[in-house]
Every structure is written in structure tokens, then in C-alpha cells.
Amino acid sequence: MQTYTIGQAARLLGVSPDTARRWADAERVRTHRDESGRRLIDGRDLAAFSVELAQQLPGQAEEGEEPHTSVRNSFSGIVTAVKLGDIAAQVEIQAGPHRLVSLLTREAVEELGLEVGMRATARVKSTSVHVDRT
Question: Containing H/E element for 22?
């Protein structure tokens, strides 16, 4: 089974190694030590913990209120770039370790008031998703 160090887990979860270490110390995620004494997290445990964390993240809705949407893949993050054209626009969002780039109409960007530095959630629904083993 694939195992991850605290640092690797932190990168995958989009948090600092200190945060991942505190979660391990608090036994929020199960760890074990390898022969050299490093703490490792089994891949299945890390996957389950990442799902648990994602369910705790706030979305665009008011506190405690879920948005009404059929899209299940939500990435809450911060807007890092907005490029406006005459008709179209490109918006980049950094959501933990994920960089998402979306093409929208300029009108939509202006209506949403999207600017660099503000929080935003990218919702992804696709009929074609490619998965690579890494």
C-alpha cells in the first residue's frame, strides 16, 4: 500500500507540515513509524481524512447552509489572476495545491466582482475526466 510522510500528506492536503503534524499528534489521522522512525500515513487513511476535511470546508453559501447545486467537485480558494478581454476573461484560482483556470465571459467576471485576492469557489462538472497514476 502507498504510504505518505507528514510533509507529503501536507502538500496533498494543501496545508503546512506543522498543521499536518498537529493533526497526527491529535490522532485526527492515523500514523505509524517506519524503521527509521519517520511517521507515515497509509494512503487509504489519508484519502478518508481528505474527504472528511473537504466536508468541513466552507463553500459559497452562508455559514451552515449548503448551496443548491448538482456539482460535487468544489475547490474553494483565492483568485490569483484575472485577465479581461473584450468579450472573454480568464480567472485563476489557487485552491490548496490545485491551480484552476477558467474561461468565462467578461460580463460574468464583472457581475461577480472577481478580483485578485478575493475568495472564490470553482465548481467543476465534466463528462470527461482523465486520471493518471502518479
Answer: helix 17-25
For the stretch 38-93, pLDDT in tens is: 999 999 899 888 878 876 755 444 444 555 666 778 888 889 999 999 999 999 99
CA distance 80 to 63: 24
Q: Regarding beta strands 88-95 and 98-105, do their DSSP bridges make them parallel or antiparallel, or are they unpaired?
A: antiparallel
**Residue 73: strand, helix, or coil:** strand
DSSP assigned state of 23: H
* CA–CA gap between residue 40 and residue 64 (Å, rounded): 34
Hey, how many other C-beta atoms are within 10 angstroms of the C-beta on 128? 4
